[in-house]
Amino acid sequence: MTGAARTLRAWAGVHATRPALTLLAVTAALSPLCARAMIDSVGFLLFETPVSLLLLLPVLAGIAAGIGSHNTARVPLPEPARLTPARIAWLLTLTGLACVSVSVGQMTGPDLPWQPAVRNVLLHTALAVAAAGLLGPTLAWLPPVSLTLICMLFGYPPSEPGYYGWAMIMKEAVTTSQWAVTATTFLAACVFHTAAPKFTGYIGRFTCPRTPTRGMSIQQDHPLP
Questions:
Q1: In contact, 122 and 182? CB cutoff 8 Å
Q2: Of 9, 23, 154, 162, which alpha carbon lies 20 to 30 A from 39's?
Q3: Separation between Cα atoms, residue 168 and residue 78, nearest integer Å
């Protein structure tokens, strides 16, 4: 048990676990407060259909899962294949915690069911995981926040209630096709998350600088005229 605990602690230590858990705690704290809250405008922009804050809160949870899944180690060693199940389990655990954090507000009896919030968590997590792998954890927020703003600003027909199909994160009803799109997107993110280290051959996104050889050092100390 002690060995397993040490392994888990070491695994959490090489990932951005602390900021991820902090964001998840903030999400869980806000979830009951947002359970019955609606937003009908952003500045001068008025929405034809008010939006529940429980549909927007998954942005934080998805970003947290994306950040926490990123390996911050900068060790230039090949990643063994046996780490693949651990990477998948870690990502699924963080995603599960994200779903739980946005579902805390369900205890207050909101009108919005848990399905749309969980759908949004999976979508935002997929985007954040891809961004963390490509751009680094500091920019993991960019795709989820951008998608949310685009859907809020342009996702509804002018002077008509409701939202377009592509702005499904703003919809309170979840359809079978939405679940299919969500599952496909999340699965693609999982594949990318586990396959990226194999493509690069290194743990983490960064490699250590090359150590200059003796010949290189001599050439730098005694440059040719």
A1: yes
A2: 23
A3: 40
> Average pLDDT, whole number, for the chain?
80
Q: What are phi and psi of 113, to 5 degrees?
A: -75, 175
How buried is 36 (Cβ within 10 angstroms: 0-12 exposed, 13-18 middle, 19+ buried)?
middle
Q: At 216, is the pLDDT very low, low, confident or very high (cuts 50, 70, 90)?
A: very low
Q: Which residues make Cβ contacts (< 8 Å) with residue 187, sequence separation at least 6?
A: none
Q: Decide: helix, strand or coil at residue 171.
A: coil
Residue labelled with tokens 């493509």? 199
pLDDT in tens, 114-172: 999 999 999 999 999 999 888 888 899 999 999 998 988 888 887 777 788 899 999 98
Asked if residue 26 has pLDDT above 90, the reply is: yes
| Residues belonging to the chain | 225
